[in-house]
Amino acid sequence: MSSKITIIGAGSVGSTIAYTLSNQDIASEIVLIDINKEKVAGEVMDIIQGTCFRDPINIKAGEYEDAKDSNIVIITSGIARKPGQTRIELAQTNVNILKDITPKIVKEAPNALYVIVSNPVDIMTYVFTKISGLPENQVVGSGTILDTARLRCGLAEHFDIAQKNIHAYVFGEHGDTSFIPWSRAHISCANIDEYTTLMNNIGKEIPTLDKDAMLEYVQKSGGKIIANKGATFYAVSASVCRLCGLLLSAYDSTATVSSMMHGEYGIDDVCLSTLSMIGPNGLKGKVPVPLTDEEVEKLKKSADALKSVIAQIEL
């Protein structure tokens, strides 16, 4: 099946997403759009010259009108987070950029599924949902998909097991108030504590997991990478491309994307990540998995933190 994906923003994240997609079979056409015409032309030339080793794919540097008939539009535009800067501190600057982009791209691709990647992603997803005029099923933020990937990476290393055997998620804000609902975390059909006991009983020495340290690993990974190399873009690109694949699949899947809350867990009028059902028609809704009272309170704390930022920005 042919599919067209447009990417707004040719910075480190946007161009890496385009490159990653060029090595997969998700899209048959990729359009990369950026205000910096020379930069986007260079990125496309560099990417397309490596596609001789795969089946033909159409990649072009374009304008907004070239997004027409896109199946998916990925928005990565915005100022990158600097070392020591929180995602929330980016809010108003990137909101202003999004307010400029939104009517231009929605005019050209009103039927596309939109994936918001720009940080702070939950705020940006909320703003786009509010100002785009699109049905909510067409809009998702990348949310805690990356956080969940980091969690599974950390758990795979701790338990010395392939990540595909791990079902654990990060909920809430893509940021400092995120949390891990450990009551929903399983490895090979056993919860984390059960799995540790089971492995020790068969002679595979597994140390007790420090759950607080694992959450810190998840939350601090982005900042550490930025401090070390200046930006994060490989893992987020892989996460977004995986999300695109789910949105273009024949069947529905679950993922921790950011979307508008409508009373789930007692939370309303804010975008954050819980387990959601997504598929070829976009967002199908939240999957109301049971959480402990403590976990619900953590989710509400995350929602309140985001609402406090929304109250301070100009929509």
Automatic annotation (TrEMBL):
Record keyword Nucleus present: no
E.C. code: 1.1.1.27
Domain Lactate/malate dehydrogenase N-terminal: 4-141
Reported regulation of activity: Allosterically activated by fructose 1,6-bisphosphate (FBP).
InterPro entries to which the protein is assigned, alphabetical: L-lactate/malate_DH (IPR001557), L-lactate_DH (IPR011304), Lactate/malate_DH_C (IPR022383), Lactate/malate_DH_N (IPR001236), Lactate_DH/Glyco_Ohase_4_C (IPR015955), NAD(P)-bd_dom_sf (IPR036291)
Function as written in the Swiss-Prot or TrEMBL entry: Catalyzes the conversion of lactate to pyruvate.
NCBIfam families, A to Z: L-LDH-NAD, PRK00066.1
Name this protein carries in UniProt: L-lactate dehydrogenase
